[in-house]
Amino acid sequence: MDGISLSIQEILDDSEYGLGLKLLAGQAGMGNRIYSPRIQKPGLALSGYTEHLHPERIQVLGNTEISYLNQVDDRLAAESIKTLCAFPISCFIITKGLLPPHCLLDAADNAAIPVLSTPHQSSTFISLITKFLEERLLPTTHLHGVLVDVLGVGILLTGKSGIGKSECALDLVIRGHRLVADDMVFIKKKVPAALVGLAEEAIQHLMEIRGLGIINIKDLYGVSSIREKKIIDMVLELVEWDPNQEYDRLGLDDRRKTILGVDIPHICIPVRPGRNLGSIIEVAARNFLLKGMGYHSARDFQERLMSRIELRPLGNEVE
User: Fold this and answer.
1) Active-site entry in 41, 57, 165, 205
2) 208 is in an annotated binding site
3) Which of 91, 115, 137 is the last residue of a domain?
4) What is the pLDDT of residue 72?
5) Is the whole-model pTM more than 0.85?
6) 151 and 300, same structural domain?
7) Which helix (H) or strand (E) holds 131?
8) Is residue 266 part of a domain?
9) Which domain covers residue 126, as residue numbers?
10) Which member of 52, 131, 142, 144 is catalytic?
11) Is 23 exposed, middle or buried, given 0-12, 13-18 or 19+ CB atoms closer than 10 A?
C-alpha cells in the first residue's frame, strides 16, 4: 500500500499525545504499518463475523470486547481469536489497562501482531489516537511563499523570488498583523478539506529582507506579531505588471488554486512601483470576510448596473 504511513513502533514511542501505550505481546510485528487515521472496534468480528473487518486499521478492544472473551467458553474464545488473527491485523490496543486472555496474547505472538495496552478509557483513547494519526498521516507539502494572518484570514503570498513577498509581509506585521512563515511554508491537510500552514522549526519567526539579512520578527515586534500555524484561506500571487496583460478589474472572476486536493480562492496582484501592496492585501482580507458573510461587492455592482440598463427608457426611434 502506497502513501504516508507509521510503524507500530513509532506509535508506541510517541510521548507528545499522552497515549500511555505499553507492549504486551507481538514484538515481531512492531514494524507493521498504519496508513489510515481511522480505527475500528472489532465487535462482532470476535464472534466470527469478519465481513466488515478492516485489518489495516488499529483494532481497539475495550471493556465490551474483553468481557466477551472472558465470559465465553475458552475453546470458543480461542477459535474466534485464531480466526481474527488469520487476517493481517496491524495491531490490537486494549484500553482501561484491562488484562487480555492468554489465548489472545499467544495468538498475537504467533501471528506477529502487536498487542498494546493503555490506561485510558476507550472514548478518551480513541480521541487521542485519532488526533495523533490525523496529524501524522494526512498529506503534507512545502510551498515557496509567505504565510500571514491578516484580520484572522490566512493569506499565502506566492510569486517568483525577489518580487517582494517578504517585504510585503513585513509591512503587514508593522501594521499589526501576524507572520506565520517566511520563505518556505509547510502545509498539512486537515479533515475534511482545510489546509494548515506553519514554518519549519529551523526558520520559525525568521524573515529574510534583502539588504538587511535575517531578522527575528518575534524579537523585534513581540509575541503578538507571530503565529505558530494558521488555516490557509486564500492564495495571493504577486506578479510583475505587464501592460499587455488584462487584469481582473471587477472582481467577478472566482479563480481557485488546488493544493493537496483542496480548492482555495486565488487572486493575482500585479506589482509595480507606487502600488501599496500592504493596503491591497488588507482590503483583500476584508473583502474575503465580507464574502463569507454573504456580501459580494462586485456581484452587487453588476446587479445594480444590469438593473439600470433594463430600466433605461428607449430613445425615440428615427424615422
Assistant:
1) 165
2) yes
3) 137
4) 87
5) no
6) yes
7) helix 122-137
8) yes
9) 6-137
10) 144
11) middle
What angle do the packed helices 74-85 and 63-71 form, to 10 degrees?
130
Domains in the chain, number: 2
Answer whether 7's CB lies under 8 Å from 32's CB.
Answer: yes
Pick 300 or 82 by higher pLDDT.
82
Is residue 136 within 8 A of residue 8, CB to CB? The reply is: no
Active site residue 183: yes
Last residue of a domain, one of 113, 137, 161: 137
For residues 162 and 288, state if they share a domain: yes
Residues 169 and 186 placed together within one structural domain of the fold: yes
Catalytic residue among 14, 106, 171, 183: 183
CATH code of residue 281: 3.40.50.300
The answer to whether residue 312 is catalytic is: no
The better pLDDT of the pair 190, 169 is held by 169
* From 2, 75, 210, 249, the catalytic residue: 249
pLDDT at 249: 63
The reply to whether 165 sits in an annotated binding site is yes
Tell whether residue 211 is among the known ligand binding residues.
no
* 144 among known catalytic residues: yes
- Establish whether 190 is an annotated binding residue: no
